[in-house]
Specification:
The protein is of the alpha/beta class. The chain has twelve helices and 21 strands. The protein binds flavin-adenine dinucleotide.
Length: 464
Amino acid sequence: MAEFDYDLFVIGAGSGGVRAARLAAELGARVGIAEEYRIGGTCVIRGCVPKKLLVYGSHYGAEIEDARAFGWTCDDVRFEWPTLIHNVHREIDRLNGVYTRTLEAAGVDKFLTHATVENPHAVKLADRDAPVSAKYILIATGSHPVMPDVPGREHLISSNECFQLEALPDSIVIIGAGYIGMEFASIFAGFGVAVTVLYRGEQILRDFDMDLRDGLAEALRDRGIDLRMDSNVAGIEKEESGYRVALKEGGSVSAALVMAATGRMPNTAGLGLQRAGVELGWNGHVVVDRYSKSSADSIYAVGDVTDRKNLTPVAIREAHAFVETVFDNKPTPMEYTFIPTAVFTEPEVGTVGLSEAEARDKHRLVDIYKSSFRTLRATVSGSKERVSMKLIIDAETDKVLGCHLLGPDAAEIVQMAAIALKLGVTKAQLDQTMALHPSVAEELVTMRHKWEPPAPIKGSDAAA
Ligand SMILES: Cc1cc2nc3c(=O)[nH]c(=O)nc-3n(C[C@H](O)[C@H](O)[C@H](O)COP(=O)(O)OP(=O)(O)OC[C@H]3O[C@@H](n4cnc5c(N)ncnc54)[C@H](O)[C@@H]3O)c2cc1C
């Protein structure tokens, strides 16, 4: 008789958990997986996928406006949120089914319940008395939105609830200016909602390249989004219709809805990890090594719960590496350079590699190439659509360290640029690449002039 019920028991059937369970089962391991909400996890049920569908939906208003200049007559244009949200949920249900069938086809046992770790080799399932035993346990429980600790926080919604709204509000306050806050600001604005963003920092999108941050902030303001930096929320009060958000600096903003996009926390509370010998980090994340192994030999963790790079493709790659290491006899360490990422705002952000500030910190000599231009489409539509591009080069090796884009299709362009950067492309090799004309991306291979910081003005303090 086998020593354990399972070779692998996975807690959490999101991006990382489903991939690990399926791959391990396909290699012949006996695998169980527990999911307390819906199979598919954040990305599929209330993250990347439904968000991107809302992003698509929010673009049509501006595109219909542009279409008029291209000769289209677009009369009686109306938008119905219930139709969009119904269709988004139909797609979520379909994907939930796809993920469920994937697990079934691989022979993984599913347990649709809350799970906790009983000891390094046992998992307790909420809907049954006896724990299940496993040689290895994989923690893939993801993360949840954190609400700011202010009076009236019970009135706040998070990104989770944005996918459940029965009607669009006429106005919304979004607290926080990270990528999720900015994406929802852009989505709501696209549907004609009056959006105010309150953020305690000095500029949106902390950790991104400064030119992207400034460029996106300007473009969002141009679209009518009220971005208020250095704003600290004192509390939220219910009003006759909607809510009033009071600011510590004085004054307040009223809106029909208030959303918090103030970060996410790993799902480890009450999971029993510490009693199983698993070390947790400052915000409760599972501390793991390069192979995703925790401080307990039989317990591994992947995805957002480890708070490394909280993105779906990273969770999937970590799951893959874990299975190769533990079940395929191929120790595979994780590597985190040149991870492309996007912010699906309008205009879109695509970025890979180091920001200018990071590059200047890590490299002795850095060259910068920048370009900013109006799109060809805008010359006819009359819209303000622009593109900004920036390349960061190690001046000593000529290697491209970072590539940052703001404008249409930035995500698609940067995904391809990421391949070149990962392979160590040099600026000279970009210059040798033939341009594809007319395209936005051609600018990446035609930037010839180094950007020089403006010379200090003689006689000013800066020159002293
Ligand atoms: C609004 C939003 C937009 C996003 N957009 C993008 C994007 O555009 N691109 C991108 O790459 N990433 C995006 N992300 C991030 C991405 O969704 C996550 O990085 C990814 O889902 C992490 O996968 P995971 O497997 O670690 O966790 P998850 O996918 O969150 O899965 C964890 C699962 O564990 C379950 N669970 C938790 N605790 C237990 C328990 N005790 N017992 C049983 N089950 C449990 C949860 O219900 C959940 O289903 C977005 C996230 C959000 C919130």
